Amino acid sequence: MARIAVFGAGSWGTAFSIVLADAGNDVTIWGRREEVCAGINDQHANPDYLHGISLPESIRATHDPEEAASAADVVVLAVPSQTLRGNLAEWAPVLPASAPLVSLMKGVELGTLERMSQVIAELTGAGPDRIAVVSGPNLSKEIARREPAASVVACEDEAVAQRLQELMHSPAFRPYTSTDVVGCELGGAYKNVVALAVGMAIGLGYGDNSTASVITRGLAETARLATALGANPLTLMGLAGLGDLVATCSSPLSRNRTFGEKLGRGLTTEEIYASTRQVAEGAKSCSSIVELAHRTGVDAPIAEHVDLVVQGRATASELVEAFTSRDTKAETD
To answer: At CA 174, angle to CA 258 and CA 241, rounded to 5?
Structure first.
């Protein structure tokens, strides 16, 4: 058993806390809202994010970051990616100096174009041997219901990845190890953008041929960028690449696909934001992914057109037209 602090009481942070508790760990969640923390402590529930799910009694919550981090063997970070920098500026002084820092976040930071592991390193001074990421086909509600799932825990230090693997291997959750942090992070971030495009196609009334085409070309686009930045191409064929992409694009539980469907039906980004508390990471990160692709010299047509729709500079119908009217070429080009 280990003492694990999970910073973030949203749907994924809470669901992953269930995994950690089921694996035998003592889990403390830091929550931004005190009423959410009270519900976790008193009712063993977080109905705002995981309605109808009972939490293990070994999970407790606090609004105090120092209390959450106290004596933690591992720190898990599960806040929206674009808020990480601001939060870590506050939390870094209280985080244990030797504890591994595990990112559950899937995004690329606006402005800096940094992956979440890079933001963590910058704000905490932690070396690559202390920074890990978890990525895979892990829809939070299914994880919370303890439906069988697999994922990848990646760290440049393989021994650290193996130790974390032991701590999160529960009866319903099977983690695999990797040392390809770059591939896991970019696979997780890019699939959210592809899911927006798939959602738009669904919102426009298109069927499986259309969505399968977007998923497949989206994977090719993801692999181009990831490998250009040093990732192992095989990572994109695994759980953190194809697996995560299929789950996010195929399930109505996916916030990014649902966000895309609403765009496809004609709602604006502002209207969608006003209707939900949940964050669709793809809508937040698509412009930074486009800029990262341009900086790297990688062709990224799906991300480019998704970004235009999210910004309100194009419609979903125009995205589909632009996608199908591109110059023809060999599939492997």
So the answer is: 50
Give me 317's structure tokens: 């119908």
Do 25 and 170 share a structural domain? yes
Global pTM? 0.94
Which of these three, 146, 162, 179, is where a domain ends?
179
pLDDT digits (tens, 9 = 90+) for 268-288: 999 998 887 767 888 888 999
Query: HSE of 211 in the Cβ direction (CA atoms, 13 Å)?
Result: 24
Q: Which one from 106, 191, 262, 284 is the annotated catalytic residue?
A: 191
Q: Are 157 and 128 in contact (CB under 8 A)?
A: yes
Determine the average pLDDT of the residues in 175-197: 97
In a domain, 332, yes or no: no
- For 277, the domain range is 182-324
191 in active site: yes
Which of 128, 157, 179 is at the close of a domain? 179
**CA torsion, ordered 163, 165, 170, 174, to nearest 10 deg:** -160
Residues 301 and 172 in one domain: no
Q: CB-hemisphere CA count at 13 Å for 113?
A: 11
Q: Are 174 and 195 in a shared domain?
A: no
pLDDT, tens digit (0-9, with 9 covering 90-100), for 231-266 = 999 999 999 999 999 999 999 999 999 999 999 999
Judged by DSSP in three states, 154 sits in: strand
Clarify whether residues 245 and 303 are in a common domain: yes
Would you state the pLDDT for residue 329?
A: 83
Sign of CA pseudo-dihedral 228, 230, 232, 238: negative
Helix (H) / strand (E) element for 163: namely: helix 158-168
